[in-house]
Amino acid sequence: MTEHLTVVDHPLVQHKLTLMREKDTSTNSFRRLLREISHLLAYEITRELPMTTKHIETPLEPMDAPAIEGKKMALVSILRAGNGLLDGVLDLIPAARVGFVGLYRDEETLQPVQYYCKLPSGLEDRLVIAVDPMLATGNSSAAAIDLIKQAGATNIRFLCLLAAPEGVQRMKEAHPDVPIVTAAVDNYLDDRGYIVPGLGDAGDRMFGTK
Ligand code: URA
Q1: Would you call 204 a catalytic residue per the annotation?
Q2: 63 appears as a binding residue in the annotation
């Protein structure tokens, strides 16, 4: 991907995102919508994967059919909300290796604190898609990408549902080589670090916690 930021403005994505934003949308619907949107976002983030051809035989005749080259991919979920996007992306890329980075945001400093990191081996040979629905300050995302790079990855993309301009800027400064795909860039971050208008706390809405 050449663009640093891609906003997927497809009507289905935008419609589903609107439903997710609504405060009365149930946990059940929120989860289902997130899974559906993650299919559409995964479609976009994998659009330019290198292709090759594979010799196959159809019931009628042999052909050289298109196939993804390499197929070595890894998904890294930034816990815990990342798991909501992860499930949908795995529906489309079931052979991907999966890693997890656990970071929580210190509510006072808004800085990320790491509590878990388990990444697949061989990341240097893989396209890594890091997933986290909310790119807010960008601090957690940038820290997660630091860890993924320390593990050897050089080809990384970042997939989120919603971004704040501040988070996009932070990622651009920290990791200009990591393209971002999102459904929308909202207006600003409030003083608690929430994206406005946003959709609230994605983890709470997805898991029904508060
Ligand atoms: N994380 C969320 O879940 N929501 C926000 O608005 C910002 C960060």
Answers
A1: yes
A2: no
Please, which residues have CB within 8 angstroms of residue 137's CB and are 6 or more apart in sequence?
A: 105, 110, 164, 166, 167, 170, 189, 193
Show the low-confidence residues of the chain (pLDDT under 50): none
Distance CA 99, CA 74 (A): 7
Angle subtended by helix axes 27-45 and 11-21, to nearest 10: 150
**What is residue 97's predicted lDDT score, i.e. its pLDDT?**
96
Is the CB of 198 inside a 6 Å radius of any atom of ligand 1? yes
Q: Give bridge partners of residue 66 from the DSSP assignment.
A: 53
The answer to whether ipTM exceeds 0.90 is: yes
* CATH, range 5-46+71-200: 3.40.50.2020
Task: Identify whether 21 is a catalytic site residue.
Answer: no
């919508």: which residue's tokens?
33
Q: Are the beta carbons of 189 and 166 closer than 8 angstroms? A: yes
Q: Is 95 annotated as contributing to ligand binding?
A: no
Please tell me if the CB atom of residue 167 comes closer than 6 angstroms to any atom of ligand 1: no
Pairing between β-strand 5-7 and β-strand 180-182 as defined by DSSP bridges: parallel
Residue 76 in contact with ligand 1 by CB distance below 6 A: no
9 is catalytic: no
Which of 83, 105, 134 is the pocket-test mutation for ligand 1 (most atoms within 8 Å of CB)? 134
> Would you state the pLDDT for residue 71?
66
Buried b (16+ CB within 10 A) or exposed e, 5-20: ebbbeeeebeebbeeb
Catalytic residue among 9, 58, 109, 192: 109
